Amino acid sequence: MATLASDISLTPAAAARVAAIAAKQGKPAILRLAVDGGGCSGFQYRFGFADAPEADDLVAETDGVRLVVDEISLDLVRGAEVDYVEALGGAAFRVNNPMAAAGCGCGSSFAV
Fold it and tell me: Model pTM?
């Protein structure tokens, strides 16, 4: 398990939302970001809660909340920021990814 430093970050808004959900579910405040093949643009983001970081995970921490990313996914999201956004269309975690060359309207898939 390594620290990410500037490889990826979690905004305070996203950290607060993760902490609230984790407390409600009685789980640790650890959000996992992974990248899967698929989606309308080639790759898609997948979020989930983790009980603990895996051995090959890289970890970023904001306000006591950890964001974990596996090494393979990190190659596709390096430099990204995970935010939590509330808008008329609903509330969701969003990835502001400088590696993405194209995205889609739903905001959950991208191309490099």
Answer: 0.82
